[in-house]
Automatic annotation (TrEMBL):
Name of the protein this chain belongs to: NTP pyrophosphohydrolase
Cofactor(s) it depends on: Mg(2+)
Domain of life of the native organism: Bacteria
Organism: Rahnella sikkimica
Family matches, as PANTHER family: 8-OXO-DGTP DIPHOSPHATASE (PTHR47707), CTP PYROPHOSPHOHYDROLASE (PTHR47707:SF2)
UniProt similarity note: Belongs to the Nudix hydrolase family.
Length: 130
């Protein structure tokens, strides 16, 4: 089974976290997620996160620390999603592959229809930072 490593950003601002909705052309379209993407060969997870957030949202992130890893098994692959706190960013969010975004109090994130692999990340974040 193929394993794919993916990074996700738990972007913090004024006590809230950023959620982004996957657009209609995406796998799991319409679900909310912590933005990020695949880790390329030879790339560290924080470097991949900075690159992906620049590509997907046109921002430059300051990665603060590791939160947790979750796994999602699909018939043909295993996706390992590595969540990282992002304590700040520069630039103005410009969505490239999401239909919308919002800022949500951490304790309210689970009230959104989250992509399944993101659920353990918010649970770990709440245990560690709330």
């Amino acid at each position: 089974m193929k394993t794919i490593d993916v990074v996700a950003a738990l972007i913090e601002r004024e006590g809230k976290l950023l959620l982004a909705r996957r657009d209609a052309s995406s796998d799991q379209a319409g679900l909310w997620e912590f933005p990020g993407g695949k880790v390329e060969a030879g790339e560290s997870q924080p470097d991949a996160l900075v690159r992906e957030l620049h590509e997907e949202m046109n921002i430059t992130a300051q990665v603060a620390g590791f939160v947790a890893t979750s796994e999602l098994r699909q018939p043909e692959r295993l996706i390992r999603l590595h969540g990282w706190r992002v304590s700040g960013f520069t630039g103005t969010i410009s969505l490239q592959c999401h239909s919308e975004f919002c800022w949500v109090a951490p304790e309210k994130v689970r009230s959104y229809e989250l992509a399944p692999a993101d659920i353990p990340l918010i649970d770990a974040y709440l245990r560690a930072y709330q």
